[in-house]
Hints:
Layout: H1 2-27, E1 31-34, E2 46-49, E3 58-64, E4 68-77, E5 82-85, E6 89-104, H2 109-112, E7 120-124, E8 127-128, H3 132-140, E9 147-153, E10 156-162, E11 165-167, E12 170-172, E13 175-191, E14 196-199, E15 215-229, E16 238-255, E17 258-263, E18 270-273, E19 283-289, E20 297-306, E21 316-320, H4 323-329, E22 340-343, E23 346-355, E24 358-366, H5 367-372
Amino acid sequence: MKKFFKFLRIPAALCTAAALFGFYYTQIPSEYSCYPGQSPTDSVIYTLEGESAEGESYSAKVKLFGLLPIKDATVHQISQKQLTVLGTPFGVKLYTKGVIVVDTEEESPGVKAGIQIGDIILTYNNEEIHSNSDLREQVQKCGGKRQKATIRRNQRTQTVWVTPAKTEEGYTVGLWVRDSTAGLGTLTYYDPQTNTVAGLGHSISDVDTGLTMPVERGTLVTAEITGVRAGEAGDPGELLGRLADRTLGTVTTNNDAGLFGLAASPFEGVSYPVGLKDEVEVGEAQILCTLGANAPEAYTIRITKVNNNLSELRNLCIQVTDERLLAKTGGIVQGMSGSPILQNGKIIGAVTHVLISDPTAGYGIFIENMLKTAN
Length: 375
């Protein structure tokens, strides 16, 4: 009997080792950031072994207790830099590359050709489409003949053939499209080294399709906050404002990490060093935002959770604790997206979303992720 129990200890030990290996494999990150010449981690559980190249990313082996290789990782070496922290409101006028299909008429020529809501029409009748009027003009030229259209769907380009239908007003394809949008948000930072200005912390998406608006051109303009509609459970509220005429810059990129552009002139403000993701701590922090005609103010929040996975964009769970902000807005409201997050004297991220069920809570993105996708 004793031999039997001794025999059982071997598979039990193997199962325990496998469980520990699986746990550490999933819990230990696959991406790290550090300044050149610094170690990417100070963990006592595991080490990273790899050869660094100055100013570049490099591959490393993650070793459990410095001995057992368990996975490969990428280390991003970040140049130390200072950013001008903003927290000011801005407006954007965005024009798409192509036109987005936001609605269709049942059994219309466009639908029969295979065009769907969310598709982006890039060309029609071999002509580039930049606006609703461009598409309308090309459709009217058809004379009832079949025409070729190039569309993009799920990042893939394809060709469809459309035969417009004759109506009393002319020819139609039965599609409703959008070529532009405008909105209000908060600027996060200005980078004097690259002349880049950034805001929102998330993409501008089409209101009907949820599709990230593909940018052909756009303008950043000043905005004035005229009031606040406070949020409550089920309704996050919003900053009320109007767009002004002074141009702040031109839009270059609209992606999941934010809206980025080139500044028309340098922004003034206080400079803060960039805080890397591994420097972010659960605990007190501040956000900068503008709620009226005055300059940005700092309000206290608490970071309740940190997600160190750089491939994800909801990196921070945040809770508004500042009684002044709660009294004015009820928490996080629409229009505050992009408000810079400060901790320990560094800029570490930006506000991105509010929880619909609890406007006092929301999410933030690492400043590192914004910088990584700024160009």
